[in-house]
Design goal:
Strand order of the largest sheet of chain A: 1-2-4-3
CATH architecture of the largest domain in chain B: Alpha-Beta Barrel
Order of helices and strands of chain A: EEEHEH
CATH class of chain A: Alpha Beta
Largest sheet of chain B: 8 strands, parallel, barrel
Number of strands of chain B: 10
CATH architecture of chain A: 2-Layer Sandwich
Radius of gyration of chain B: 20 Å
Oligomer: heterodimer
Number of helices of chain A: 2
CATH topology of the largest domain in chain B: TIM Barrel
Distance between the termini of chain A: 16 Å
Distance between the termini of chain B: 24 Å
Helix content of chain A: 25-40%
Helix content of chain B: 40-55%
Number of strands of chain A: 4
Radius of gyration of chain A: 12 Å
CATH topology of chain A: Ribosomal Protein S5, domain 2
Number of helices of chain B: 12
CATH class of the largest domain in chain B: Alpha Beta
Structural class of chain A: alpha+beta
């Protein structure tokens, strides 16, 4: 999927996260993560975010994640929603979301 | 016999509640993609529920997803998410006639085939929310072998009837019609939500009424209501003691090859034994009434 516009998904409530995607300044993919539990779970959050983006075929753009202690399932859902919104996708490939 | 006393509504867009609701241990958890989700968050709620359904913590609890009506742009994508994620039951809102269930069933089967899920493994329930739905309750209840139950949804129904929620008089016919349809179709019946969380006495009065009418349980909007409901549905110690004697006497009669047995001079037949088993099941689930 190609991110063609800025898009948001999620909230800043506890156990949730806010994901902002945009086409980005460069050609590659940049992921910026901040979290209340960065020290304990930063690597895991980074892994889930990048894995979710890879399954969606996102190779370029800026992805900013502000985490408030969300579970992996919420991270995947919010990243997917932001990307689908940012790509203006009209159809969903469910196999890429599992 | 699956116990379905409490069906807890969870707003599908709330990440925190979706991640933790299993701790409250209702009989069924219902992820709501319809009224509890604003139009602009339908897409994000759908994906949150899609992933929450796959959490191992929900394997022990029956999961239900209330999708949007299939005549909206959200209904089919909701159904795709729910079926593909392995939901136990899909709840169809605003069911007015048997054809609504038949259309849903066809779509569910299509998705099951597409994703490799066992055909027939997705169960259904229909919510009746209008005068037409109440009139057609029996046809709705018999519309699909996948149906596990039908539910009365009070708010939309009283609006359709041009009245408002009160002491229950306004729901009397609908409750009886839905309940009879469910029983005739041998499926479960669920009562309306009680929305005034601060009126515990009113909630318990309504629970007592619907329990005596014969409803399997009730849709709930707050975890605080679960224990109250389960306790109200729990049998008394005397009821448990008598049910135990009934089941023992029935087992003894079966060992002796007797068609009918008696306990203290009273005949014990199939319905009495079934009732006794339900009493013991409720006692096993939540003890005796406090």
């Amino acid at each position: 999927m190609k991110i063609v516009k800025e898009a948001l998904a999620g909230t800043l409530e506890s156990s949730d996260l806010l994901v902002k995607v945009s086409p980005g300044p460069g050609a590659g993919l940049e992921v910026v993560i901040s979290s209340e539990v960065m020290q304990q779970f930063g690597l895991q959050i980074d892994h889930v975010v990048r894995d979710t983006l890879a399954r969606l075929g996102v190779t370029a753009g800026l992805v900013v994640v502000e985490d408030k202690g969300a579970l992996d399932c919420a991270i995947r859902a919010r990243v997917q929603t932001a990307v689908i919104r940012g790509a203006e996708a009209q159809t969903i490939d469910w196999s890429a979301l599992s | 016999m699956k116990l379905r006393r409490s069906m807890l509504f969870l707003p599908g867009a709330n990440a925190a509640m979706l991640s933790t609701a299993f701790v409250y241990k209702p009989d069924s958890i219902m992820f709501d993609l319809e009224d509890a989700v604003s139009l602009r968050e339908k897409d994000s709620a759908r994906l949150l529920v899609f992933h929450a359904l796959q959490l191992p913590v929900y394997r022990e609890t029956e999961t239900v997803v209330r999708i949007n009506p299939l005549n909206t742009p959200f209904g089919l994508p909701d159904l795709e998410a729910a079926v593909r994620a392995g939901v136990d039951v899909v709840r169809l809102p605003k069911t007015d006639c048997a054809e609504d269930v038949e259309v849903l069933e066809r779509e569910v089967e299509r998705i099951e085939r597409a994703c490799g899920r066992e055909i027939g493994s997705t169960r259904l329930m229909a919510a009746i929310e209008s005068a037409s739905g109440v009139i057609n309750a029996l046809a709705i209840a018999k519309a699909s072998p996948r149906l596990i139950g039908i539910a009365l949804a009070g708010f939309d129904y009283v609006m359709d009837m041009q009245t408002e929620r009160g002491d229950g008089t306004e729901l009397f016919y609908a409750r009886c019609a839905v309940l009879h349809a469910a029983r005739a179709a041998k499926i479960d019946a669920f009562d309306v939500v009680w929305s005034d969380l601060n009126d515990e006495a009113g909630f318990l009065k309504e629970v007592d009424l619907i329990k005596r009418l014969g409803f399997n349980g009730k849709s709930l909007i707050n975890p605080r209501q679960i224990e109250l409901l389960h306790n109200a549905y729990a049998p008394t110690e005397e009821e448990v003691e008598y049910a135990g004697r009934v089941v023992s006497a029935a087992a003894e009669g079966e060992r002796k090859g007797l068609g009918v047995v008696s306990l203290n001079g009273k005949m014990i037949d199939g319905p009495v034994i079934d009732h006794a088993r339900r009493v013991l099941q409720r006692a096993e689930a939540s003890g005796t009434r406090k």
